[in-house]
Amino acid sequence: MTVLGSRSKKSSKLGKAMPAVTKYVVPPLVAIAVILVIWQLIFSGPDANLPGPITVLQETWDPLIIDPFFDYGGTNKGLGLQILASLGRVAIGFSLAAIVGIALGILVGISPFVYRALDPLFQVLRTVPPLAWLPLSLAALQQSDPSAIFVIFITAIWPIIINTTVGVQQIPQDYRNVAKVLRLSGPKFFWKILLPSAVPYIFTGLRIGIGLSWLAIVAAEMLTGGVGIGFFIWDAYNSSRLSEIILALVYVGIVGLILDRLVAFVASKVVPEEQKG
Amino acid sequence: MKVFVEVDHIDQEFSLPNGGTYVALRNIELKIQQGEFISLIGHSGCGKSTLLNIIAGLNRPARGGVLLEGRQVTKPGPDRMVVFQNYSLLPWLTVRENIALAVDEVMSNVPKGERRGIVEHHIDLVGLRHAANKRPGEISGGMKQRVAIARALSIRPKLLLLDEPFGALDALTRSGLQDQLMKICEENHMTCVMVTHDVDEALLLSDRIVMLTNGPESHIGQILEVPFPRPRHRLEVVNHPNYYSLRNEIVYFLNQQKRAKQRKAQQTVAIARNGLEKVNLEIGFVPLTDCAPLVVAKEKGFFEKYGLDQVILSREPSWKVLAEGVATRRLDAAQMTAGMPLAMTLGIGGKAPQPVVTGLVLARNGNSITLSKRFYDEGVRTLADFKAAIARTPDKVHTLGMVHPASMHNLMLRYWLSSVDIDPDLDVSLTVIPPPQMVANLKAGNIDGYCVGEPWNSRAVKEDLGFVIATDLDIWNGHVEKVLGVREDWANQHPETHFALIKALLEACEYCDDRRNREEIVTLLARPEYIGAAPEYIRPGFIDEYARGNDTEPEMLLRYNQFYIDRTNCPYRVEGLWMMTQLARWGITPFPKNWIEILERVQRVDLFGAAARDLDLLDVEPDRGSIHFFDGTVFNPDDPIRYLNSLKFKRNVRIEEVVIDAMPAAV
């Protein structure tokens, strides 16, 4: 009895003494430190193929790290500007994909006929890797920037369509029955029942879509060139600035995470409380 | 009154994945008046929700249709608003918005301000003012259902359809909402159809309860009228004298359906074993002390001794249901009242003749006539006093209960009343009540007395509700009371089984009349699956002195329950003839010109004799003599028609040839 009592007291004390910051921030920091140390140990030899973390810091400190927004003209710009350029393309491509994808998804979801007609097509197209579209779009659009945006669009649209379709098809029969019994008009059904009911699915699609677009933009820019994080990486590789590549990868990762969380945040504000989970 | 909703011979079918069709509903026909509250009740899967959805227009029937005010229902519409089982509120709208959605859409021609008013009125109606701005996720299940009801009522539907509206709620919330719904419906004169599986809910709310049989091919099994006056109050309804008999009727229906389902699952084909055609018998009985031979045969292994190792005793709620059970082949055999085999063979109450045979008498005597204690307090001690008491209050209808038209209770009660010139149909009113409900009806004042077997007389005596004015020892000592009855075609198909059944029961009867065994039998009978009454109600007359509840001392009546002694078990033809005269006398059956043929076929003395010889017991039929009654009349078996004509009181006596061979040969 006493043992039990003292233990429970101890654990509660421990729980109080450890605030959320230490609980959730310390472990990843420790993990990062360990990885950095291992990385440093492996690549510290004179004939290592890749730079160690210390070398990376030394080589990129000035000006890439301390000034992300320098602009020396051409493609020689700070990483912040490079990423903004890429984000700009993603914004345009993804927005188009969202608008077209949701509209098409609703159409396909409402009409079983359209669903039967288009679904096999979608299933085939969605498996085409993003970069496979690039030559086609370059040939069609003749310009690198719209082509990159098209690749974003075509990459992001499939999960948005498919999830929206499912969302519309999954409107609970109860809500449909209510609409039938009340003889709700078309627009009212759309705004009061269809859309709110499909919103969680739509956001799932958007979240997958934004992740895929960010994956695709880096690859597309490597091929199309110009200002952008993808070409920055490719350029750095061609000039053997390996440290810059590593730094850019860190940036890409962090931005991808932020984008994902941003969509999730918007979803949490838009999706009705009862629809979550 | 004009028909408001007409469900016109609906069939509903669903196609199965294997290409076949499942017939969910078959030939549903129902007419609903305006302002009526109808409940649909049945086991899950019986198609009651399907029927509701068809009325709502959400599903189309395969055949037939629904008319609302003469117009066919083809699609859902707000004139038939549904309250769904899972509320079906839109979770992204507040309580107010949910109701407003319906009002705005349906009443779009009403000015906006007025619509607001309607919404607010209905929020108040269900008492949700404090939660008007909450979303469904923030309120309890009971509150959600109130919103759903408010939403349904707000658009003033002609017909309100409720699909198990309170099924998911706790008991307290449920009863509160039932009261609220009842009040709203009564005030607004709403026409409602409700699907439920709650018997009490159905009784409280409904004017009629429609009971559906199990699917496939579910149809209306029975419609029960609920006569309670409106406005209703929960307590008044529950205390209404008919409440429990109605409730029993529904529960019985549902149990029967459940059993039918189980039977279907078990695939009861006849199990032939031990040299018998069928050993899995279902035998009906009514909870009374004289069901003892059946209980003993089952519990003491007499059935098994003769190879019948899968006998189920089926406790029946009334003699009527038991008779139907035999006629519809649900029961293989049954303990019947003495006149029942003859009456069923002759065709009772206009029904087609159903030949039934009896090869064994199971009990003699055991009945009494009990009158309300009120008469005792008025000084009634004898039948003559009773007659005087009736004469004193000519404008009051005196009602006496008996258990079945073809029971000895009815025949003896009528004979007893007639002996002092009380006409059993004109001077008093006789009504059929199942034995276990007699005491409750006496207590409720629905009846003034009754003739029934034990323990239902002793119970009234012990509870000081009534007193025994006569036992059947006073009227006709040693009369036949209960017999074993089986359909004639069943007996022809299962001769060995029938013979084994008779032998097992004959031996059980002998066991029952050994008074050393009676203590044990009382504990068996008191079990809930048999009589389910306390032993002290069963003991009087069976073991102990019989108390009449009047100023006489309790006395030992050794012949009160007679199971074996004095040639109890022979289905003696003269008694059968007397019963036929009485059945004809009171217009229950015609008197057959071919009475000898009928007697030979129904009263199977030969079967009894063979069984008795097999067991080395006395097998002779009592002498074919006259029967002498307490009032001095003599029944001469050689001239029944003259006897019938000599009786003072009689109804419209039909004497005709009864042909029972028109029925198809044993299938």
Poorly predicted ranges of chain A: 1-13
Give the class of chain A from helix and strand content and strand pairing.
Answer: mainly alpha
CATH class descriptor of the largest domain in chain A: Mainly Alpha
Any idea what the CATH architecture of the largest domain in chain A is?
Answer: Orthogonal Bundle
Number of domains of chain A: 2
Overall mean pLDDT of chain B? 86
The geometry of chain A reads as globular
Description:
The complex is a heterodimer of chains A (277) and B (667). With 277 residues, chain A is an all-alpha fold. Chain A contains eleven helices and no strands. Chain A folds into two domains: 2-43; 79-275, Orthogonal Bundle (MetI-like fold). Chain A has helices spanning 2-17, 20-42, 53-65, 79-110, 112-125, 133-141, 144-169, 173-182, 186-224, 229-238, 242-270. The model of chain A is unreliable at 1-13 (pLDDT under 50). In chain B, the strands form six sheets. A six-stranded mixed β-sheet of chain B has the order 6-7-8-3-9-10, sandwiched between helices. Chain B has a five-stranded mixed β-sheet with strand order 12-11-13-20-14, sandwiched between helices. A five-stranded mixed β-sheet of chain B has the order 17-16-18-15-19. In chain B, helix 2 packs across helix 3, helix 2 (95-106) packs parallel to helix 4 (141-154) and helix 20 (495-512) packs across helix 25 (605-614). The longest helix of chain B is centred in the middle third of the chain and has 24 residues, at 243-266. Chain B is elongated, with a radius of gyration of 29 Å. The chains are: A mainly alpha (277), B alpha/beta (667). The A-B interface holds A 174-175, 177-178, 180-185, 188, 192-193, 196, 272-275 and B 56-58, 75-78, 80-82, 84, 86, 88, 90-93, 101-102, 105-106, 135-137, 155. Chain B: This is ABC transporter substrate-binding protein. Chain B: Belongs to the ABC transporter superfamily. Nitrate/nitrite/cyanate uptake transporter (NitT) (TC 3.A.1.16) family. Chain B: InterPro entries: AAA+_ATPase, ABC_transporter-like_ATP-bd, ABC_transporter-like_CS, ABC_transporter_ATP-bind, NO3_transporter_ATP-bd-like, NrtA/CpmA_ABC-bd_dom, P-loop_NTPase. Chain B: Its main location: membrane.
